[in-house]
Amino acid sequence: MIMNNIYARGFFVVFSFLGLWFLMAQFDWEKLFKVKENTQSIEKKLGELTIDLFVKEHTKVEDSYIVRSVDSLVTKIAETNHISKKGLKVYVLKNSEVNAFALPDRQLVINTGLIESVDKQEMLSGVIAHELAHIEKKHVIKKLTREIGLSVLVSVISGQSDPGVISQIAKTLSSSAFDRKMEKEADMVGVQYLLNAKINPEPLADFFFFLEESAMPSVTQWISTHPISTDRSEYILKYLEEQDEIIFEDAISAQTWKTLKEKVYNIDEEPIEE
Questions:
Q1: What is the C-alpha separation between 230 and 117, in angstroms, rounded?
Q2: Res. 103 pLDDT band, cuts 50 70 90
Q3: Where would you find the membrane-spanning parts of this chain (predicted)?
Q4: Do 18 and 85 fall into the same domain?
Q5: Three-state SS for 227?
Q6: 45 and 178 housed in the same domain
């Protein structure tokens, strides 16, 4: 009789647990607690705070030819990969460092130093595709949540944190690497973006080789914030060997690219206003 009671109670506990689990599974907890909306709200505010900081530190390039040419590269990749341009913001900043990086709220920053350093438009397109992959894969907010902490991010957007925290967040995004898993995912997704856009990804691999071998001070920032460039070049080239042959196209005309490079060079030669 005692054993029967034990079995009955055990059955009741298991049945109750399964029943409760089933009922809880019926709720959309993400919707109930507005997780998506809250995350978007955090990203939007962080995006505003971080880009404001970068624009204060480095001049935003307003030259219509430069802005339009860079946007043409972004548009080519976005449209052929069904990436919505709604809310996607691209900034070109006067900064000699060879770098480009993604910010919260679908923002992409490209330094003039990067445009100056690349020999081919496909190299710039490759870096853009890589950063778009970070944006589309939500790597930015994942990185911040892991390294800064969600509670700190919430305190920042509510104005309850030390003002220096936003500088730390900006530094984390522009000067520290994503983990290797995220970087490789962004590389490979970015390469696929390029293939879909009929842009040759091989110059991107060449660019990584260049970075690894370069002794230029302006390249130091990129090397310190990205995995070993030769490794990335090699797995990109290996992936390309496995793909069907594609007839590649220029995203912008050769003349447009030449003029873009000249205009960026002239901007970087201008003295910085005090």
A1: 18
A2: very high
A3: 6-24
A4: no
A5: coil
A6: yes
Comparing C-alpha atoms, which of 59, 135, 111, 66 is closest to residue 219? 111
Are 178 and 71 within one domain? yes
Structural domain that includes position 7: 1-31
Which residues, in sequence order, are CB contacts of 61 under 8 Å at separation 6+? 67, 91, 92, 93, 94, 112, 267
Do 138 and 18 sit in the same domain of this protein? no
Cα separation, 266 vs 260, in Å, equals: 10
Q: Which tokens hold the place of 104?
A: 């919260």
Structural contact between residues 74 and 252, judged by C-beta atoms closer than 8 angstroms: no
Write the pLDDT tens digit of every residue in 19-71. 545 544 454 434 533 445 566 788 898 889 899 999 999 999 999 999 999 99
Indicate the burial class of 124 (C-beta count within 10 angstroms; 0-12, 13-18, 19 or more). buried
pLDDT at 16 over 80: no
For 146-160, b where at least 16 C-beta lie within 10 A, e where not — what string?
eebeeebbeebbeee
Alpha-carbon Rg for the chain, nearest whole angstrom, is 23
pLDDT band at 1 (very low <50, low <70, confident <90, very high): low
213 to 181, 221, 228: CA distances (angstroms):
23, 14, 11
Residue 164 lies in a domain: yes
The tokens describing 191, both together, are: 């390469």
pTM of the complete model:
0.80
93: which strand partners? Answer: 60, 111
